[in-house]
Design goal:
The complex is a heterodimer. Chain A is mainly α. Chain A is built from 13 helices and no strands. The N terminus of chain A is likely disordered. The chains are: A mainly alpha, B mainly alpha. At the A-B interface, helix 3, helix 6, helix 7, helix 11 and helix 12 of A face helix 1, helix 6, helix 7, helix 8 and helix 10 of B.
Chain lengths: 304, 307
């Protein structure tokens, strides 16, 4: 109950200017502890993400070795000072491979969410704004797309298209469409009934302009939250595809492929499969934490 | 009530037809010639032509589509490209392993997810809440196949407590169901927690408290009933996730299920098998969603009246 009475003051500005509650807002004091924890988590998440982005852009500056450097006298060496995370079956440094693999995993997550989010937003916007038969048709199509679970849809598409990095991204993108379209549609429906839309129509604004200049900007916050969290699930689908052998075998492997290779050696060299999986998990956790934080920040009703 | 159920069933027929069509479009319209894929890139053109003839790929597309639709509805999914066995036979042989895994994982996810979600909401911002939130975050963020590998390493290789591979006994179900169910449990925990926290803020809870009900009675008799409603709606999604997730998880635990079938089919470009496996999963998801819709309207009269 207290939470409800506090919410009006819980705007982002209020939280930012008064992070520990303080005397001005005594009701917030009970949340002081959790607020600091969540700030620390956000800081940690941003730091990890920044590191991985840096690794994706300039891996050669961060990694201690070259990803193609195979030391045939050091096959499957356990973690040591010279090889922090050990070496794999070809004598490559696992830490180096993870650094170099981050580019593909990040690209997979981000690009597919952008494509899927763009198409999903357009569908949701058109369906929600036009209503009537257009809405029914789009939403039934969306329902159909939703009946086939994401990873299976992605499997079907990447089998049909054949192996290439872009095809894998395309497959994950399609799997990401229906969820986005649904949420955007319901947001559009609630915005469409607001008076300012009637006002815009009354002064003769065109439908296209209302859709893109008045409604779309108001969908921004749910969209941003959804896309952030979507990066995490897209990465999971993508690594799942490469684990199943649908990814592209490249000179510099991605995390899912590293993991599936390491699986064969897991009884003799646990580190080869464990660390790439840890990297995937860490990236997805970090993205989810940032997404949760964004949602709390943009929707004060939810509180902490 | 019966009218409502009939209505729901009629509405799901076009959805089933739609997903059949979607799978057809993906497999047939997207660039890439199935016959070429089976034969390999450097196969002789005669062989490609032969295969195309054999699998009826030379027929006009609309005829292929109608044949496919009619055959799928009769449960005839054609013959495997790889070994000419009827696809249905292979599916039926492999389905029990996948279904048992999916069912046990779903039950695990529901029991653990609801319990942890409620606990987490009731002890909000206490130590227990933080522990639960960490677990659920891990659950939704870990790749299932990685968790599976870790479980095998710890429980089978090092502790030698549970078998790592195979299907048949219940013991062999424990590790894969845990690996698969934890994702669902994480998803559900987060949902239930949010939903309980939202319901607790509603005015009717104040009324209940002010009329002197114990906190326990308020929670169990009134808050949970309302808070678990939205959780029922995600059940359909959850079952779909568990079925699809089984495909990946099975590979890790070498279970002879749908997943193994799909992975082998991927390697052999065995399109009828992939097609059928996806269809089966899709149709299962639609049926579960239908059941969820019906039971939802049974539990919550508002839904029935709204239509």
């Amino acid at each position: 109950m207290q939470v409800n009475s506090v919410t009006p003051e819980m705007t982002p500005e209020a939280v930012a200017s008064n992070p520990v509650g303080g005397a001005a807002q005594p009701k917030l004091r009970s949340k002081a502890g959790s607020l600091t924890v969540s700030k620390a988590l956000l800081g940690f998440s941003l730091a990890v993400l920044a590191f991985l982005v840096a690794a994706a852009i300039v891996p050669q500056w961060i990694a201690p070795y070259s990803p193609t450097d195979m030391k045939t006298d050091q096959l499957l060496h356990s973690p040591s000072l010279s090889h922090w995370l050990g070496t794999d079956q070809f004598g490559r440094d696992v830490w180096t491979l993870i650094i170099f693999g981050s580019r593909q995993s990040l690209l997979m997550g981000i690009v597919s969410v952008l494509i899927g989010g763009l198409i999903g937003t357009l569908i949701g916007l058109i369906a929600g704004y036009c209503g009537g038969i257009v809405d029914s048709v789009f939403m039934r199509l969306n329902d159909i797309l939703m009946t086939i679970p994401g990873i299976l849809l992605a499997i079907a598409i990447s089998v049909a298209l054949g192996p290439s990095f872009f095809n894998v991204i395309l497959a994950i993108s399609v799997a990401a469409i229906p969820g986005k379209a649904r949420v955007i549609r319901s947001t559009v429906l609630s915005i469409r009934s607001r008076p300012f839309i009637d006002a815009a129509r009354a002064v003769g604004t065109s439908h296209l302009e209302i859709m893109f200049r008045h409604i779309l900007p108001n969908c921004f916050s749910p969209l941003l939250v959804m896309m952030t969290i979507g990066v995490g699930s897209s990465i999971l689908v993508g690594t799942g595809l490469s684990f199943l052998g649908l990814g592209v075998v490249q000179e510099i492997p991605d995390w899912g492929y590293l993991l599936s290779q390491g699986r064969s050696y897991m009884t003799v060299a646990w580190w080869v499969a464990t660390f790439p999986g840890l990297a995937i998990t860490l990236l997805v956790i970090v993205v989810n934490l940032i997404g949760d934080h964004l949602r709390d920040w943009m929707d004060p009703k939810r509180g902490v | 009530m019966i009218k409502y159920i009939l209505n729901r069933i009629i509405v799901s027929v076009p959805v089933i037809l739609g997903s059949l069509t979607l799978v057809f479009i993906i497999i047939h319209w997207l660039p890439g010639d199935p016959a070429q894929m089976i034969a390999g890139d450097d196969a002789a053109p005669e062989r490609v032509d032969f295969l195309r003839e054999q699998f009826g790929l030379n027929e006009p597309l609309w005829k292929q589509y109608l044949d496919y639709l009619w055959n799928s509805l009769r449960g005839d999914f054609g013959h495997s490209f790889a070994n000419s066995q009827p696809v249905l036979e292979r599916l039926v042989a492999q389905l029990p392993a996948t279904l048992s895994l999916a069912v046990v994982s779903t039950i695990f996810a529901i029991v653990v997810g609801v319990a942890l979600g409620v606990l987490s909401a009731v002890y909000r911002n206490k130590a227990l809440d933080y522990v639960v939130r960490v677990i659920s975050l891990l659950g939704v963020s870990m790749p299932k196949f990685w968790l599976g590998i870790l479980l095998i390493l710890v429980f089978s290789v090092h502790l030698r407590l549970l078998p790592a591979i195979g299907n048949g006994s219940f013991k062999q179900l424990i590790l894969p169901s845990f690996a698969l169910g934890l994702t669902g449990a994480g998803m559900l925990t987060r949902m239930v927690r949010n939903s309980v926290l939202e319901v607790i803020q509603e005015p009717f809870v104040v009324t209940l408290r002010s009329k002197g009900l114990t906190e326990r009675a308020v929670l169990y008799r009134h808050v949970l009933r309302n808070a678990l409603m939205p959780a029922i709606t995600v059940l359909g999604v959850l079952v779909g996730e568990m079925l699809a997730g089984a495909v990946v998880t099975e590979t890790v635990f070498s279970r002879q299920g749908l997943g193994k079938l799909v992975v082998d089919a991927i390697n052999q470009k065995d399109i009828p098998v992939i097609q059928a496996a996806i269809l089966i999963t899709g149709i299962f998801t639609i049926i579960v969603n239908l059941l969820v819709d019906i039971s939802y309207s049974y539990v919550d009269p508002r839904v029935r009246k709204a239509r």
